[in-house]
Amino acid sequence: MDLLLIGIGTGNPDHLTLEAVKALNSVDLVLIPEKGEDKADLAELRRRICADVLTDPAVRIRGFAMPVRDPANPSYLARVNDWHDAIAGAWTAAISDAGGAERVALLVWGDPALYDSTLRIAERLARRMELRVRVIPGIMSPQVLAAAHGIPLNDLGAPFLVTTGRRLREDGWPLGVDTLVVMLDGGCAFQTVPPEGVEIWWGAYVGMSGQITDRGPLSEAGPRILAAREAARAEHGWIMDIYILRRTPAG
């Protein structure tokens, strides 16, 4: 079986590359993860993308219930590994329930290469069946955020680091780098950063019709972002956001 992992950007159909459109039209089955009523918009966005670009009516679209992580397990890595095993089982069951397929696609937010576990789950699936995996790259959310603010990701001749809210909160600002791109931050870890000399560029639902952005000194923009996140989550039931932090060197 061929498994195509297709990067779809941040949910905007215009983010699909021509390669992604061709790949999507080459499969027999598209699997759509469903994460409950609160996140029904995410499944609907994937279905809308299929409706916009699929030209072959023979391509089947099947939803499956996405397993959730067990919050009772105190080990983060153990929770994630168990979760990935459960997702691999859900993929296997969904393909079987659909009557099997030779070419199956999964639509991946952004790109499978950056803070996404689809490739790791595909490795688990490959242990259960003969499987060939193909990746079709997509636009990543850091690109979309930088474009929304009209800024480069890196300062002149300088590196930047992509990390998560959990790592920023637990480990602090990494040494040797002045620019951070922070993803997967449900706890607003920027609140743990001493704000003096720090700028933030933030975006939620970047690239989507409901995109929200803010920017400025962390001391000023931070409280605005907290309020905007709370309001957006209350309105939509979910939020996807990302931000850039940049320190101005002393002197």
From TrEMBL:
Example GO biological process: cobalamin biosynthetic process
Gene3D superfamilies associated with the record: Cobalt-precorrin-4 Transmethylase, Domain 1 (3.40.1010.10), Methyltransferase, Cobalt-precorrin-4 Transmethylase, Domain 2 (3.30.950.10)
Biological pathway: Cofactor biosynthesis; adenosylcobalamin biosynthesis
UniProt keywords, alphabetically: Cobalamin biosynthesis, Methyltransferase, S-adenosyl-L-methionine, Transferase
Gene Ontology molecular function: precorrin-6A synthase (deacetylating) activity
UniProt feature coiled coil, ranges: none
Domain Tetrapyrrole methylase: 3-221
The enzyme's E.C. designation: 2.1.1.152
Catalytic activity of the protein: precorrin-5 + S-adenosyl-L-methionine + H2O = precorrin-6A + acetate + S-adenosyl-L-homocysteine + 2 H(+)
Name by which UniProt lists this protein: Precorrin-6A synthase [deacetylating]
Source taxonomy: Bacteria, Pseudomonadati, Pseudomonadota, Alphaproteobacteria, Rhodobacterales
Gene this protein is translated from: cobI_2
